[in-house]
């Protein structure tokens, strides 16, 4: 191939199934994640989905067991929920610390390190002899496993074109959110049959098994697209190394930790979705996760199994929502791109934000119903007992 032919090949624009230009345009490199076969993309997506599932499972699997946990450490049930609060709170710091490493050394080593931290901290939680030790182990667990939640979206962007990201992110978010909904159900039954400490042993086993799976099958997806370096098939196994410096032009600086990520808040299109998601997730998911076991044990005399089932009750609707949201927002983006192609403009990614409208009405309505019904049942039962 002559240099001119090679240049023509490299500059050739590729299109999707409906005739729109692919965004971003894939390079000619065999290591470009956009060029991975679809089966490998789906296998990778399934693995990062499971990582997000386990990360949230680690945090909330103990929630149905706060009452027996409180009895063992001789503390109030409300105080027993602080170990989950601590884990959730410090999980906000993990992505800010680990993401700069992932942008230079790759996503794969960070995922593997997170799984190791998750395994060790779950073992520490299971063997804790005091509530202070448990708090420390839970803080390490929340901090160490949380980067999988932030890096998952980056891996989706590495693997999929713009017109595919809605469905991919829908699946990833489905796994992320349902880890918090399925794990209390598991934790309720585990606590009733084997005790609350086995909730953490389950987390340790799952982290350890997932570490082995990712060592063998999770490829690296970080790629310097602008260089378009050609690689041979002989270099493919490098994508399964534990630690590889894949970005020769990138360097870590002190401001990359915390300061640079938070600087994105100066953009309204970043700040609004982040604040909206945080408030919605906080009130619709976290608030219930921290209060249901204590309240329902006191009001309805539920055991850990029933508390776990109540905590897992939101499983159905979020599943339906995420299954619909991905394809719908992909259709929104496809429609916007067609219009932009006619007018010779660029479709703004904020088009996808229109998908939040149903939740903007459903979440407040659900919270009002939850509080109203809980309070009315409490006073009815109190009146009945008197």
Describe, in plain words, how this protein is organized in 3D:
There is one protein chain. With 386 residues, the chain is an all-alpha fold. It is 69% helix and 0% strand. It has 16 helices and no strands. It has helices spanning 3-10, 38-60, 66-73, 77-80, 82-90, 94-105, 107-126, 131-145, 147-159, 165-194, 197-217, 259-262, 268-300, 304-311, 316-343, 357-385. Helix 2 (38-60) runs antiparallel to helix 8 (131-145). The longest helix has 33 residues, at 268-300. It is globular and about 70 Å long. Mean pLDDT is 84; it is low at 1-10 and 228-237.
Structural class by secondary-structure content: mainly alpha
Give a count of the beta strands, DSSP E runs of length 2 or more: 0
Shape, per Cα inertia axes: globular
**Helical segment count:** 16
> Beta-strand percentage?
under 5%
Key phrases:
386 residues, mainly alpha, 69% helix, globular, disordered N terminus
Topology:
Blueprint: H1 3-10, H2 38-60, H3 66-73, H4 77-80, H5 82-90, H6 94-105, H7 107-126, H8 131-145, H9 147-159, H10 165-194, H11 197-217, H12 259-262, H13 268-300, H14 304-311, H15 316-343, H16 357-385
Helix pairs in contact: 2-8, 2-9, 2-10, 2-11, 5-8, 6-7, 6-9, 7-8, 7-9, 7-11, 9-10, 10-14, 10-15, 13-14, 13-16
């Amino acid at each position: 191939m002559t240099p001119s032919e090679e240049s023509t090949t490299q500059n050739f624009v590729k299109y999707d199934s409906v005739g729109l230009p692919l965004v971003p345009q894939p390079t000619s490199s065999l290591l470009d994640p956009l060029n991975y076969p679809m089966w490998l993309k789906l296998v990778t997506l399934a693995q990062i989905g499971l990582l997000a599932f386990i990360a949230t499972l680690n945090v909330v699997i103990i929630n149905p067991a706060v009452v027996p946990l409180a009895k063992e450490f001789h503390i109030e049930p409300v105080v027993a929920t602080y170990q989950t609060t601590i884990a959730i709170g410090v999980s906000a710091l993990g992505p800010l610390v680990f993401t700069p490493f992932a942008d230079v050394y790759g996503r794969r080593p960070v995922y593997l390190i997170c799984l190791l931290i998750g395994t060790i901290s779950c073992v520490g939680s299971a063997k804790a002899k005091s509530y202070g030790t448990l708090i420390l182990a839970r803080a390490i667990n929340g901090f160490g496993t949380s980067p999988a939640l932030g890096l998952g979206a980056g891996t989706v962007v590495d693997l999929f074109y713009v017109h595919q990201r809605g469905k991919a992110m829908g699946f990833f978010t489905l796994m992320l959110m349902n880890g918090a909904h399925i794990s209390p159900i598991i934790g309720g039954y585990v606590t009733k049959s084997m005790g609350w400490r086995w909730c953490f042993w389950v987390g340790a086993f799952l982290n350890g098994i997932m570490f082995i799976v990712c060592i063998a099958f999770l490829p690296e997806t970080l790629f310097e697209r602008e260089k378009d370096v050609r690689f041979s098939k002989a270099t493919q196994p490098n994508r399964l190394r534990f630690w590889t410096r894949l970005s020769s032009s990138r360097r870590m600086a002190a401001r990359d930790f915390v300061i640079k990520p938070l600087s994105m808040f100066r953009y309204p299109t970043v700040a609004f979705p982040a604040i909206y998601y945080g408030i919605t997730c906080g009130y619709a998911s976290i608030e219930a996760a921290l209060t249901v076991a204590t309240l329902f044990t006191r009001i309805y005399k539920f055991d850990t199994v029933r508390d776990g089932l109540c905590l897992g009750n939101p499983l159905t609707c979020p599943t339906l929502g995420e299954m619909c949201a991905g394809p719908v927002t992909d259709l929104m983006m496809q429609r916007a791109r067609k219009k932009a192609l006619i007018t010779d403009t660029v479709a703004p990614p904020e088009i996808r934000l229109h998908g939040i409208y149903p939740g903007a009405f459903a979440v407040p309505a659900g919270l009002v119903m939850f509080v109203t019904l809980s309070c009315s049942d409490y006073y009815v039962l109190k009146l009945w007992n008197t």
